[in-house]
Structures are given as C-alpha cells and as structure tokens.
Predict the structure.
Amino acid sequence: METTIDTISVGDYIVLQRQKYTKLHKFNSLDSTAMLGKDLLELRNIESKPYFTTFKMVPKNGAKGKRANTLEPCTDKSAFTENLIASKGSGIDNRNITDDGSSQSLTPDEIQKLRDECSSSSEIVSQIVENSKTFASKTEYSQEKYLKKKEKKYFEFVQIKRPNIRTIADIMYRQSADKIYGIRMDQLSQLLSYSGVCGVGNYLLYESGTNGLVPAALLNSIGSDTEAKLVHMHPGNVPQRQALLALNLKQEQLSRCVSVNLYSVLRQYYQGTEPVVTETILESGKHKLNSDDIDEINGAQPAKLLKLDGEANGRDDNKANGDDDKVNENSPEINKKPAAANKEQWMIDNERACVILKDQVDALVICAKEHPSTILKSLLPFVKPSRPIVIYNTSREILAELYMEMKSSYSVTNLKITSNWMRSYQILPNRTHPEINMTGNSGFLLTGYTVR
C-alpha cells in the first residue's frame, strides 16, 4: 500500500531507477548525492518534484574518477533504436562476422572524449555505430541487442520512484540475500497470504535477521486507516527497521507497530509489577504458570496494592487537614510523579504489548535465525483458537522437527511444509524463454491453525 505523499521531500527514502537497475537511497538533505555505477548524482533538484518524474543526467566537473552529474527534469527519453536500424539496414545472417576486436575504429580514449563532449547518449551511440565496420552486416535482431547494450552503458535518464514493499524486497534480495534471511518476494507474498494479515485484528511477529522486511510487509498489509496493531518481537535491544522506514509511512501507521524485546516483554507479562497485567494472568486462567511464578506474582501484588492504598490515604489526610500545599517528602505522592515521568520508551512499549497479548492475537508469524521450537512454545498461548501460524526457515529439517513436535502436542492442525520455486521468463516476440540466471530455493514455510 502506497503512502499519500506525492512529492519528494527531504528525509524520504527514494528509489533511483536507471533502465532496469534500481537503488534504494535516503534523501537526507539538499546536498545529498548518490552513486549509480561510476556516475555521481547531485539530488538537489529533485526536492518537491512529483514521484515517478524522469530526470536527465547533465555532466559537470566532478571529483577525479567520478562523473558528476546534476539532474534536470525532462519528458523526452524516447529510444532511437528503430530509426537507426532502418537507416543502416541489416544483414541476412552473422556467419561472415568475426569477433577479432578490429570492428570498431574508435579507440577507448576517443570514446571517452565523445562521452565528455556529447550532450546525449544518442549522439555517443550514433558515433559508435558510424565507426563500426560490421554493424550493417548484422541481422536486425543482433543490431537491436547491440544497440540496447550500448544504450544501457551510456543511458542518461534516471527516474525517481516511491518505494513500495515489492521494490524494497527485490533491491535487498539482489544486494545481499543473506541480510534479509534469503526471503524472496514470492516467498514473502506466500507468508502474507497464509498469515491472513489485514486491517482487522491484532498480530504477533517474532523476527530476526530480515532487516525489517517482514514487519514492513505485515504493517503494509495492515494499512493506514485501520485499528489493527502489530506486536513485533525481536531478540536484541534495538529492532532492525531499515525496510520499515524505507516505506515512508506516516507516524500514525508506524505507531501501530509495537517493537519489543521478546524476553523483556514476556518477563513483564508473567512477572511484571503492573496490576493490570498480574490480575489478567491470575484471573484469565489461559496461561499455565508453575507454583514459583504464581508465588512470585502473589508476593508482589499485596505490596503494590498497599502502595496504592497509601497514596489514596495520603491525599485524603492532606485535604482533611487543609494542608494541600505541604506534602511529606517521604509520601508516595512525591515518589510517584518522577517514576511516571522518567519511564523509558521500552517500558511503555512493553506495557502496550502486554495489553495486546492479554486480548490475544489473530495470527502468529515467526521468521527467526534461531531454532523456532522454544519461541513457538512461548508465543503460541497468545494466539486465539482457529487462527493461522506461519513459520519461515531456510532449513527444511528444522521445520520437519517442529512439524513432529506440533503433531504430537495437538495444539495446531492442518500442518503443511511448503516451498516456492519461481523462474523468471523473458517475454519478447519469437524470443520467449526462461531467464538464464535464476535463483533456487527461497526457504520453507510451516503453516497451520491453532486448536484449543
């Protein structure tokens, strides 16, 4: 789901696209620059321009070894391939063409000089074609491939796009699949489909090692005009949120994602000092606690209630004595205000997550580099009956072990282990075939539905 922001602003993440190559970049300031290959792009002129605007790379004097360019908005970026082929003609076949390196009369230095002097890529490619001894003898198909290769090298147009979840996933997977735990876009779409995440309900996610891609996809599916919430559990002190921030979501939508440390929030849920949490655990009966846990909670609760009673008595006594302005230094009222004011953000997030977990969630998604068995056992009690669970892992053997554990526990039904195998195809007239380079497996999914 795309945001409603239509123009480029400082602080936004943007996607730079040059032909088929895309790059994710943060537009930090007016002086921000970006590298596309050996080309240095100054991004000053893109501010306040609509997304999907096409810019022309205008060369300027830059640093040594870098081709510095400014970006100027333009509308004319039509290719000249068809006209050039028609003017030169083409051969019947390529049998008499020998690739001996002597077909191009221009030297590399002369081509670089053309690149510095010419104002457009069309002029450069035209000069290269003019000085090619074999271009007119090639077949029309070979000529088209040759021109596309040269256009790609000297292409001078860049389009600025608004990031979306598919673009972010493709860029991150291409740059380093390991940094997003090998999740390809087709596997991510299957994960979203099995989990049933939408704008209604609350959802629970444990994620580690995906650079924020999975929480970004879930929050994107939740949408902006909803009341749904996502509890994002992670193993570290700070969650990975690059992909989430790259969506340029409004703060209202970002606030629906509550990021908490797994161990910290579970400790507060079962052993916390908040009355609402302890009362929920003791009264609901939905979570089985051992005797030590119950004794610890019961032991902490009277002191908590006593403190609340003391605060109430202190306020009544002061009012009765007409001594509103003078309060004892050791009274609970003095100690209460600083504690609330100094409460750290992670404590507030833990409290929000505990409230959501109290009401239970509508789906559980686990995408962890750790073994998911213990994590699943800890989080499964928070899922409502007949709700989906989805577990992603790059190892089929790990999920097979978990499959047997869940089968024997009778807590989840309709268990399945699935894997996607996606192959891209080139679709062109009389030239439709699978892509030569392709990726293999993108991990496995274990899915099922809870049973009570």
